[in-house]
């Protein structure tokens, strides 16, 4: 495989009525996006949040797994009636939904034979052919089915499992990022920024985000690129722009 | 229009590379979901987060505006090169992208004629026929194009504008919600919960979410329904279940 310019992308599919109802503030999206980019060079290019409805899960799994190199699902892998991720993925890929021997053993050991009831056993039923993503917090494993990696919805458990995803992923080029904070308003630099973006169109992505800090208004200019050299050139131009417009910069 | 059983749904389309890169933790999804449900009786049934790419925005606007009663977009309505929501929506609906007279006047008044430069003027270019969503924080209005409501990405500004969306929305039945916190583990009650859910399948949605509080493990059981009566019946059954299994309950 070529080492240069290897783009690997992913989508995240958040399965959970509790996010759509507004009851729970999602914390997994930013965490997974950050981790994938910084540790694996994988860019998340789409996120979807959908309800716990089998048909909706199946449709989204099929669509996203075709469109992106990887799909990460969160939620719906526990023991209750609303946990239907594994069975939905089985249906999506038309493979059997059955006990996974190793997962069964892990959970049996964790709970002890006597307390290993049907609901707990359910957590070891996975799409046939799945590989396990080990769970150091609460035993119940995540799983990889084709290019779909399924993780739990509870952030602390998900966080503890993320490193175990690495072995299932092919690395891409890391996107480097630099932020300059200009003490100005967007409309004062919009034209210049647009021109710089045009010049570096293919290589650097320039984002402009207003902020309010300690009563001051500013703009965070975030530059992102897989090329450190191009990133440096853009930032030199941005510093020149600040000098030209006499804008104070606050680096973080 | 019938008053009873009026279901109104919506999708949210978050437009922003800064969310997908993991740089920014989204705060708008939970806020909009909560507001729509509690103030307008509108359920959010899908959320998508996509990059600032015109073609992607167009495709998603077309698809979601057909599938749901309303679509809320956030982000991409400022003065910089990466703010392309208005022009993308114009293209999606094949309407002209042009100066909106009232928006132009509002912004001209806000900035003053002399400081009203081309970049600021850009914020008054909207899809033809759009209605304004007034912005009490920073003047630049949001806008409604057909069933698509476009808001800014900065949470404090979005929050200040949300009440101004109301006049553009048709109300639905409010979904009521009740939470019981059981000090137990999910697998201890999964079977019973499943049975109760089956019994109330069409009327009440039961969600089960593990929590950790002050070193204790528990399960939040969230019941949601447009019928307060059915919600009450389900919660009576849940309280009976707790009694049967000798589970301590913590109400919030």
Coarse morphology of chain A: elongated
How many strands, which pairing sense, and closed or not: the largest β-sheet of chain A?
Answer: 6 strands, mixed
Individual helix count of chain A: 9
* Average pLDDT, all residues of chain A: 94
Features:
homodimer, about 250 residues, alpha/beta, Alpha-Beta Plaits, six-stranded mixed beta sheet, 9 helices, 12 strands, about 35% helix, about 30% strand, elongated
Description:
Two copies of one chain form a homodimer. By secondary structure, chain A is an alpha/beta fold. Chain A has two domains: 8-168, Molybdenum Cofactor Biosythetic Enzyme, Chain A (3-Layer(aba) Sandwich); 176-251, Alpha-Beta Plaits. Chain A has helices at residues 17-20, 28-40, 54-67, 85-93, 101-111, 118-122, 155-161, 186-199, 228-244; strands at residues 8-15, 42-50, 70-74, 97-99, 125-127, 131-135, 139-145, 148-151, 176-182, 205-213, 216-225, 249-251. In chain A, the strands form three sheets. A six-stranded mixed β-sheet of chain A has the order 2-1-3-8-7-6, sandwiched between helices. A four-stranded antiparallel β-sheet of chain A has the order 10-11-9-12, with helices on one face. In chain A, strands 4-5 form a two-stranded antiparallel ribbon. In chain A, helix 3 packs across helix 4 and helix 8 (186-199) runs antiparallel to helix 9. The longest helix of chain A is centred in the C-terminal third of the chain and has 17 residues, at 228-244. At the A-B interface, helix 1, helix 2, strand 2, helix 6 and helix 8 of A face helix 1, helix 2, strand 2, helix 6 and helix 8 of B. Strand 2 (42-50) of chain A pairs antiparallel with strand 2 of chain B.
